[in-house]
Amino acid sequence: MKKVVIGEELDIIIKKSLDILCDTVGSTLGPKGNNSIISSSSLPAFVTDDGVTLARNIESDDVCVNSVLEILKEASIRTDEIVGDGTTTTLVLLKAIMSNANDLIHCGMSRYEVKKELENEEKMIEDLIIKESFKPDDNALKNIATTSSKSEKIGETIYQVVKKIRNIAGVTITTSNKEETCVKYFKGYEFDTNLASPFFFKGTSSIKLKNPYVLVTSESIYDIEKLSNLINKSFVDKRNLLIFAADYDEDVINQVLSFNYDNDLKLYLLKNPEFGKRQYLLMSDLLEICNCKEYKNQFSYDNVGVVKEIVINKDKTYVYFDNNLADYIEENKSNLEYINDEFDINYYERRISMLSDGLATIEVGGKTISEARENKMHYDDAIHATYSALEGVNIGAGYTYLKISSTLEDNCILKNALCVPFRQILKNAGLDVNTIEKNIAFDFKKIYNVKVGHYEGIDSPSVLDSTKVLIQSLKTAVSIANILLSTGSLIINEQIKNIDIDHDINI
Question: Mean pLDDT over residues 70-80, rounded?
Fold first, then answer.
């Protein structure tokens, strides 16, 4: 059976869902926010103050409430997916916006009018946030990382990574079974190993080649005779030869393995990694890195390039190079304008990072598995917040929203909502909200640093927010509010024993 929930009953369910999600997650906002314990059937219980993690794990036994929760969670987590931070702020804003919107609706304003006004105000406030923003210096970036992670140690680590690796696509964060966190940098190009035969390893787990000849082709090689001139050249020049091709005949592979067995100089056959468009891009990169030309009609010395070093492990292959690829990198950056798929964009950006700055892996440790997991969440938040801050930052701790609120007309729907993140941060820290708000709002010449417990001048604030996070948090909150305001019914599966014709409709 299906049940349709409408009218006042639906409003109650939506409010209950907002209270459960927004109050739970909102309690973590700020440097002195509360922790929550999350129990999982598949993992040990752990403690966290990470907003997006909390949101993902909140459920209700009430099927109606849980249905609304799933919509709210999916939409709010979108903030984290776009800018990597701001889920908690999004939900705090959302509850306040819905409260104000419902008050206006009860006073006679139509839902459509409220929605249109919210959209107009959001666009206006976005412009005001941008006007209040400024480009971050090194100290500002470090402060952003520290504020987001709530840890000076994590903030310093993230700052150093961001300084060296200019694109977040080049950074990987993993947990480690060690107590200490370490950062590993890699200046080169990496991809999955796809050797034509496992016997090329010949009792070793790693192959290292210094200054080898490299041949790259999209064709398959079925005749060893096609390689004879190149093999002879590598033999004469005393260089190992590495070939990337679509595929190889079994006889070719066996003959090459036999050649390697009898000679100190080696020939290695790899099948082109990846598929489709990604394979084409990877091969293009290899051609540039190795200074070689793709085979067209016949193999010649002109096709062969040289690269500084190649390391082939059983899972990954690493290519180290020292040639200047500035023009090629700029060409790939310009191509990003024509790519819309988020997955493809990330692949492009990771390639560009490998070609320019290299890669970084942050292996996050902890005294326990739970601690390492929690630390990783803080590193994830900080790395995303810091990279998003490269485009611009604003004074944090709710100050920017609060200041903009003071400039809005009293009839603006978002005026009061913008004050709530500031108040929530102070409330979570157990501070006198009214007194601190009055002191700051008097002239907006200072900010209250909750972490250290004193006021600071706005000329050199130590608490900062990414402009992108502030904008996206507001955008998402308004978007979710508009979804809720335009929802007139909830249809669920339910076993209905006693049907009340005044409230329940079976379809």
Answer: 81
CA dist 106 and 11 (Å) reads 12
pLDDT in tens, 93-107: 999 999 999 999 999
| Predicted local confidence at residue 295, as pLDDT | 63
Q: Which amino acid is at 8?
A: E
Residue whose tokens read 């501070």: 431
Mind listing the pLDDT tens digit for each residue in 356-366? 888 899 999 99
Both tokens of 83, joined, read 């800018």
Half-sphere exposure of residue 21, counting CA atoms within 13 Å on the CB side?
A: 37
* CATH code reported for the domain at 138-187+357-389: 3.30.260.10
pLDDT band, residue 451 (cuts 50/70/90)? confident
One-letter identity of residue 419: C
CB 1 within 8 A of CB 507: no
Distance CA 54, CA 471 (A): 22
Amino acid at 340: N
Dihedral sign (CA 288, 289, 290, 291): positive
pLDDT over 90, % of the chain:
43
Q: Which residues contact 272 (CB under 8 A, 6 or more apart)?
A: 194, 218, 244, 245, 246, 279, 282, 283
Give the model's pLDDT for residue 445.
93
Please tell me the chain's helix, strand, coil percentages from 3-state DSSP, rounded to the nearest 5.
50, 15, 30
**Domain at 2-134+393-493, CATH from 3.40.190.150, 1.10.246.130, 1.10.560.10, 3.90.700.10:** 1.10.560.10
State the chain's mean pLDDT as an integer: 87
Given a contact cutoff of 8 angstroms between Cβ atoms, the answer to whether 206 and 312 are in contact is: yes
* Contact of 396 with 470, CB cutoff 8 Å: no
Alpha carbon distance 448, 432 (integer Å): 12
Q: Give the range among 81-85, 265-269, 386-390, 465-469 with minimum mean pLDDT.
A: 81-85
Is this prediction's pTM over 0.90? no
- Superfamily (CATH) of domain 190-323: GroEL (3.50.7.10)
- 211 dihedral zone (left: phi>0; alpha: psi -120 to 50; beta): left
